[in-house]
Amino acid sequence: MPSRRRAGAGAEQRADVEHVLDEDAVAQLEALYASLPSLTCKGLCAHSCSRHVDASTIERARIAAAGVDLDAPTTDGACPALSRALVTTGVCTVHPVRPMVCRLWGTAASMPCPHGCTPDGGVLDDASATDLLAASLEAGGHRDAGVRELLTACMTDPEAAALMAARLRGDRTVEPALAQRLRHLRR
User: Fold this and answer.
1) Tell me: the pLDDT tens digits for 68-107?
2) What is the dihedral of CA 154, 155, 158, 159, to 10 degrees?
3) What 3-state DSSP class applies to 24?
4) Which of 4, 5, 33, 54 has its CA 20 to 30 A from that of 179?
């Protein structure tokens, strides 16, 4: 039986993020993170945190334990983990426990760094990045049990793959078409 530890969520955080973390699943996530190419970051990418992100259940619990609710509304629509304090504006407050989707920024073909940061060993192709994202959601659990199958279907469907790549590059105008295509793929 896997060993477990309790997330240290504070009283102000929602009860549904307070749950038991499976240390084996955390180790699987850490191994996935370690498999990513290393990237020397210039720290100029806070603009890429302009919206809320999705994460696995365990990633959400780790972030909640660091004091951030990923579902919390923000006045600017940006990620709740992004610091808005005057001295540290634009700094990720949960960087050590950030989810896979954030770790893929700058390392995946569809999420290139606009400031010239490139990963050692080259950029991951979108299929590899999607596999890593799906594996992290599977290892950490996800509220949508079919998310891995949906991501896989998305990468094998040329229309959905193009829409997903555009969205990952920051094009919000494709969201309605992407949502419609994903609904079609779920059938």
Assistant:
1) 999 999 888 889 998 877 666 778 899 999 999 999 999 9
2) 30
3) helix
4) 33
**Any idea which residue has 């001295």 for tokens?**
87
Structure tokens at 35: 């498999």
Domain that holds residue 135: 4-186
State the Cα–Cα distance between residues 136 and 148, nearest whole angstrom: 9
Q: Rounded distance, CA 177 to CA 142, Å?
A: 24
Q: Which long-range contacts (CB under 8 A, 24 or more apart) does 128-137 make?
A: 129/104, 130/154, 130/155, 130/164, 132/32, 132/35, 132/36, 132/100, 132/104, 133/100, 133/101, 133/104, 135/32, 136/29, 136/32, 136/56, 136/59, 136/99, 136/100, 137/56, 137/100
Question: What is the count of structural domains for the chain?
Answer: 1
Spell out the alpha helix ranges (H) of the chain.
Answer: 23-34, 57-65, 100-103, 126-140, 147-156, 158-168, 175-186
Type and span of the H or E element at 22:
strand 20-22
Whole-model pTM over 0.85: no
